[in-house]
Structure formats: structure tokens, C-alpha cells
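Q: Here's a chain of 278 amino acids. Please give me its 3D structure as C-alpha cells.
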Amino acid sequence: MTLEGRAAAVEVLGTLALVPPKLEEFQFVKVKVEGEIARLTLDRPDHNLLNERMLAELAAGISTLGERNEIKLIILDSAGKTFCGGIEIGEYTQRRVFQLLDAFHGAFAAMLDASKPVLVVVNGPAFGGGAELAALGDLVIATPKARFAQPEIKLGVFPPLAAAVLPYLIGPKHALELVLTGETMSAERARELGMVNWVVPEDELKKKVDEVAAKVTAQSAPVLTMAKKAIQASLGLPLRDGVRNSMKVFLNELAELEDSQEGLRALVEKRAPKWKNR
């Protein structure tokens, strides 16, 4: 399709897709906020396949909740037996596939740009776009039921996001293996490669999620944001540039926080810090 054709398709078909849905209007992503934790649950039977609407809801949910000062952690999980079966492409014509890709880019950009830590919980297959969702989580908990794959090569295409992200996470050789073969790997193998932080039995999943959430939310909200910012901004940079970037955040932003001063006082006074989240 030519650029003119794409522009025409977006102009005719893309108007509604450009309007971010409000949280109360979500159809395929459930939203639940409890204190300092926001939970987004993929809920589109039967396999949580990602269509334009679901991707738009995911992007809007992460962006909206990430702007709330009281939120310290966003949890992304799923309803049903499948975490996410990937992008639903069967119903999309050549004209409409650009809309789908735009929605896909918006959702994953929201994951990358989220100011709050994102904990992804995988208790079932995560294929294609679902595996990429998990890969973009800051922290990932999986059960033995989780399986990960980038099967796009078997359909005559390749996963553009995974092709860029996986080499950072697991190294080029393992990334090439996953993308070029399309083979499925276990949760334990994903943990060995660095895509997953913890693998726990299904009956211990809730306990582990609560445990990790408690450890994260016990910290200062703005410090969590700055720590994540420093790490992500250093990815791909030479070591010296990464250190320089991290120190810039530390000296120019962190030092101005009341919480950083409170943390030092609490250490000297041998007590638990009382965060003001500012």
C-alpha cells in the first residue's frame, strides 16, 4: 500500500481509534484500583487476542493510571486460561492492518513510557504480542502454565517489537533463536534467559504477587519513578554514558525530593522512613 493509501485508510477508518477510551468505558480490560496498586486484567474470551479496541484500552489504562500520584505499582494480568494469544489479524484487511499496527504501537509505547513500575503476571500461554507484553514488564511473575513464543515467522512475518527488545533482554543469540524458529519455551526457560523474574506454583501465585507488590509499594512513589527512569534511559548506551545519565537524574531530580531527605534522616535515627511521596 502506498503512503497515500495508508493516509486515506486512516482518514476514513481511523477517527474513532484516535480517541482514547475512558476507564469506565473499557470493554476488554478490567480496571481495579486498591490503594497504591492499580490492576489491569486482560479479559477478552477466548484467548485474549489483541484487537484495536483492546490495545487502545491497554494504552489508555497504563497512561491514565501512571499519571495518578497515589499509584505506585501497575499490575497487568489476565482472565481465562491464556495470558494473551497475540494480535487478532484474521479480520483485518490490508487497508485496516495499519490501524491495528498503530494501536499496537500505542499500547507498547505506553508500556515502555509508563512512569510507574509495571508487574506482569503470566499464568498461561503468552504468544506473539502477548509474549512482547510480558517482555516489556518491569517485573514478571509466571507459573509453570506460562509458555512464551514468537511464532510470527511461521506466518511469513517477523515480530518487529520483539526483534528490537529481545536482544536487550536475553542477548542476540537467544533472540535470534526465538524469532527465527518460532518455537515455544517454558516459564523456567524464560526465567533462565532473563525474561521472567520468578516462577512459582499456581497455588502460590497470589501470595507471590502480594509479596512483590508489598515490597515495591513500601517505597517512595517518586523515587520508584526516578529509579525506573534511570535504568531505562541507560539501556543501549555505552557504560560511561549510562552512568552519566543516571547520575544526572540522581543529582538534578532525586536530591530535590523530600523523601530522599527523609530516607537519610530515618537511617541516622534508626527508624522506618515515613514517605510523603514528594
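Q: Can you summarize the key feature?
A: The beta strands are 29-34, 37-42, 73-78, 118-122, 125-127, 139-142, 147-149, 185-186, 198-199.
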